[in-house]
């Protein structure tokens, strides 16, 4: 059993802390957001993630999981000093596309001031290559008492919506280390989790994360580009993707054509990977193309709406789903937000329903009527856009939906429905890359 401090209790930090507690360690999660810490201390969970709340309750009850608002307290909680500190704060994009590492730097400084014994400081946040070197230099600069430490990179590959499951059953665990001592510590921390362990140097681990996310984004843009050709030729992208995906070298996942990728990871990680490559002297043009195709998918959805409704001014458009993918309440960089903004700028009024993202949507979206069911979302609408493929949208009563709409226009931005069935019901049905 190790003593672990996790800094940042967002999607990654809270899941990491909870799952490491579940694995048997004693974990203290720290966040600078006092409201979040208060919520967590009173048994409430600030994010929606399947299975997380139950696991938090269990580990808090068994006294393996604690929450506090300061890094020194988290690192020396109830007289026990942390063996490892995981940095899991945000690394959002700056306007030029590079990652904003200010918080990582501040946290590294705070950790240094609290060091009392050998500690492994672990980058859990997604960071550009060479960040580990900068974190080590920062610590050295403020480590006046010369306390021994190691910096390590342990990128996280969990997906929002299945984060707990992904953390406890990962495809691999990547440990980027610069000493045997740090490797041993991290191996011991991850011992209860069954997965292949890949040990690398720190820079390679950092690149593994950016390269993996950018590759997945590329797969999505690739099939979206194929979908665009399908639309121009009358082919069906779902049939094409099926035929491609059975090839084991390609694989079937991430071959769903749609409105493009979004979320807090792919867009910013792809940008940051492009930016760091350029900074190091390599123009990674492929990544630019991936981004351009992705932007084009949102425009394609808008275009379909315009093709069906002509003028958008005064039209009412309903959104089924707002989160960037199902099973999460995360709206960061969700394609829905951009599409809504464009429609509003052309004079359309928007009504929307999402199974779990409504509280967050209420805080973010301006002038959007948020309703409580999919059926309410159809009421009076000139068009419905299926934006997120939540499972509850699979089995809607579309006769009821159609009866409530002013015009039966259904834009399926995730290819969730059967085109023939929808047309038979009388919808003007449009999807992505399918006739
Ligand atoms: P998040 O915004 O949900 O969480 C970050 C947390 O850090 C917030 O709770 C914030 O209050 C806290 N924080 C900020 N400054 C702090 C400080 N000085 N001290 C303590 N806490 C502080 O972000 P996230 O989605 O959890 O992502 C965190 C990192 O993990 C990012 O680098 C992201 O790219 C990476 N990542 C995210 C995912 C994902 O699916 N969300 C997956 C893999 C990796």
Amount of helix? 40-55%
Strand order of the largest sheet: 3-2-1-6-7-8
What is the gyration radius calculated from CA atoms? 23 Å
CATH class of the largest domain: Alpha Beta
How many distinct helices? 17
Beta-strand share of residues: 5-15%
Q: What's the total number of strands?
A: 16
Q: Which CATH architecture of the largest domain?
A: 3-Layer(aba) Sandwich
Q: Which structural class do the helices and strands define?
A: alpha/beta
**Largest beta-sheet characterization:** 6 strands, parallel
The CATH homologous superfamily of the largest domain is called: NAD(P)-binding Rossmann-like Domain
CA-based shape: globular
- Poorly predicted tracts of residues: none
Q: What assembly state would you assign to the polypeptide chains in this entry? A: single chain
* Average of the residue pLDDT scores: 97
Calculate the terminal CA-CA distance, rounded to whole Å. 57 Å
Structural features:
Rossmann fold, single chain, 435 residues, 16 strands, 6-stranded parallel sheet, 44% helix, binds nicotinamide-adenine-dinucleotide, 17 helices, alpha/beta
């Amino acid at each position: 059993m190790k003593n672990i401090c996790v800094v940042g209790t967002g999607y990654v930090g809270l899941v990491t802390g909870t799952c490491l507690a579940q694995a048997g360690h004693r974990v203290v999660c720290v966040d600078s957001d006092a409201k979040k810490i208060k919520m967590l201390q009173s048994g409430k969970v600030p994010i929606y993630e399947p299975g997380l709340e139950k696991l938090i309750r269990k580990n808090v009850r068994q006294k393996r999981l604690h929450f506090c608002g300061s890094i020194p307290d988290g690192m020396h909680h109830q007289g026990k000093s942390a063996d490892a500190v995981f940095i899991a704060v945000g690394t959002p994009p700056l306007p030029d596309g590079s990652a904003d590492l200010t918080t990582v730097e501040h946290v590294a400084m705070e950790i240094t001031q609290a060091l009392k014994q050998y500690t492994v400081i672990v980058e859990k946040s997604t960071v550009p290559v060479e960040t580990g070197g900068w974190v080590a230099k920062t610590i050295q600069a403020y480590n006046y008492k010369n306390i021994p430490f190691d910096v390590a990179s342990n990128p996280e590959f969990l997906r929002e919506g299945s984060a707990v499951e992904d953390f406890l059953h990962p495809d691999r665990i990547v440990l980027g280390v610069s000493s045997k001592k740090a490797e041993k510590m991290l191996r011991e921390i991850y011992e209860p989790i069954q997965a292949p362990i890949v040990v690398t140097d720190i820079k390679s681990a950092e690149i593994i994360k950016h390269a993996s996310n950018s590759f997945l984004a590329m797969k999505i843009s690739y099939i979206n580009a194929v979908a665009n050709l399908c639309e121009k030729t009358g082919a069906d992208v779902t049939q094409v993707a099926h035929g491609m995906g059975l090839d084991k070298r390609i694989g079937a996942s991430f071959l769903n054509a749609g409105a493009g990728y979004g979320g807090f990871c792919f867009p910013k990680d792809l940008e940051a990977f492009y930016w760091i490559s350029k900074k190091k002297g390599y123009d990674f043009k492929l990544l630019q193309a991936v981004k351009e195709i992705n932007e084009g998918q949102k425009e394609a959805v808008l275009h379909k709406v315009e093709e069906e409704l002509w003028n958008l001014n005064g039209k009412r458009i309903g959104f089924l789903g707002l989160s960037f993918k199902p099973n999460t309440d995360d709206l960061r960089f969700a394609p829905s937000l951009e599409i809504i903004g464009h429609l509003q700028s052309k004079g359309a009024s928007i009504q929307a329903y999402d199974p779990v993202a409504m509280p967050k949507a209420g805080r973010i979206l301006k002038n959007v009527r948020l309703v409580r069911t999919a059926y309410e979302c159809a009421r009076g609408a000139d068009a419905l856009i299926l934006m997120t493929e939540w499972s509850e949208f699979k089995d809607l009563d579309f006769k009821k939906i159609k009866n409530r709409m002013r015009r039966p226009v259904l834009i399926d931005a995730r290819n969730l429905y059967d085109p023939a069935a929808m047309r038979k019901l009388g919808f003007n049905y449009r999807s992505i890359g399918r006739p």
